[in-house]
Amino acid sequence: xxDPVALVLRFFHIAFGIxxxxxxxxxxxxLRRALAQVDMPARKETMRRLxxxxxxxxxxxxxxxxxxxxxxxxxxxxxxxxxxVETAWGRTLIAALVLALTAFGIGLGVGVRGARGxxxxxxxxxxxxxxxxxxxxKRFNMSQFAGLxxxxxIVALMVVATETGF
Length: 166
Ligand code: HEM
Known about the structure:
86% of the residues lie in helices and 0% in strands. It is mainly α. The mean pLDDT is 95.
């Protein structure tokens, strides 16, 4: 019979993983391209509304994906070091954990910080810091691409771990 604890952990892990990496793919593949065609005042207003939500939603869904993934890893490995660190399955998941924490760190340190910096300027009555905003925008974009690249690599590791088993 299927293990109900593993089923619940797997469900939430996958659901939050979709929320996290899905939002990154949507941001890069849809939102960025659509916003590029919007005139400047409307774009600024959209960013002003988007940033406070985005900077909570992305770190939240990322943290929950990692948390549920880590607990699932411990649970499936029965908390046995021999399974968790000495098998190909365990090592694949440790690699995924390191990459996920790196993506999370880049997201917080570069993405969220950059976005909050942009928000300060967007909220100014008459902002005269064009070059600073452009630099923040560049950092924000870079973190989006880096996060998405790492996210896809992690998904590939998930496929390998699921296929390999232990
Ligand atoms: C970008 C982040 C991640 C995403 C999108 C993601 C997504 C997924 C998906 C789609 C599966 C396949 C489930 C299945 O076929 O049943 C899976 C399995 C799994 N993930 Fe993740 N994952 C992520 C990060 C992590 C991290 C950091 C860990 C912690 C070590 C982790 C631990 C696991 C475990 C233990 C499994 C089950 C593997 C197995 O069935 O052998 N995941 N994940």
